[in-house]
Please model this.
Amino acid sequence: MSVATTESDSEPTLDLTPAMGQRSGFGNLLRKELGQWWGTRQWWIQLLAWVVILNGVAALIMIDPESTANEAVQTFLLMGAFVIGVGVVLTVQGAVVGERESGTAAWIMSKPVSPSAFILAKLVAHSLGFLVTAVLVPTLVFAAEAAVLLSVPLSYGSLALGVVVVALAVVFYVALTLALGTLSRGRGPVAGIGVGMLLMGQFFAGMLPLALVIVTPWLLGDVATSVALGTELEFNGAIPVIATAVTTSALVLAALWRFAREEF
Model:
């Protein structure tokens, strides 16, 4: 709030300045984050990497006469739920930590920008970037590969539903990495915990009690495969989907809470 006077009026007039809201600066920060994805070479490097990795392996399976269409779909979705998660952690690990180390975060927070906007802009930009380059485009390429290389037509509607489950896993790992970045002062712990969680699910999920594993994102690849192929699971597939969605929301709230208490 500022006080201003005019020559025609000796009484002071009040010029109200709106207070900074929870989303103050979100639009500008989102444009900055999207610019780092789509205004640089990052987008095509990510896109090329995911098409080569995901679609390259899928093509090898499709041209193998001993493989089936179901094996190609299963491999594509299981790889998507795991490998993209690793890529997310390694890419996003410095989103918060790096800007804190360089002083960029302190400079941004000295402006009329809310801490919530800082975190949410990164969440939206990184999620959108990976969903387009690592999920959407490779899925379209996979569908084209299947149409050309497979003798049995796929159910593309069911495949799309399975891909939605993989997309949930991607958003989860974006939220997890950002939350870890607000808690840690170094990139090592962020990457170590994030990748370690993925590896634990990959190698030890079958050894742990189902009651524990079912509330983690580790089973989302199996759920995606089940949805895409119409196969039965040994557990209720809705549970890991709902649990992951809830956990993702909790991680975002935790990141917002922790970063709002950051001292710059």
Q: What stands out?
A: Confidence is low (pLDDT under 50) at residues 1-19. The chain has one domain: 21-260. The two ends are 24 Å apart (CA to CA).
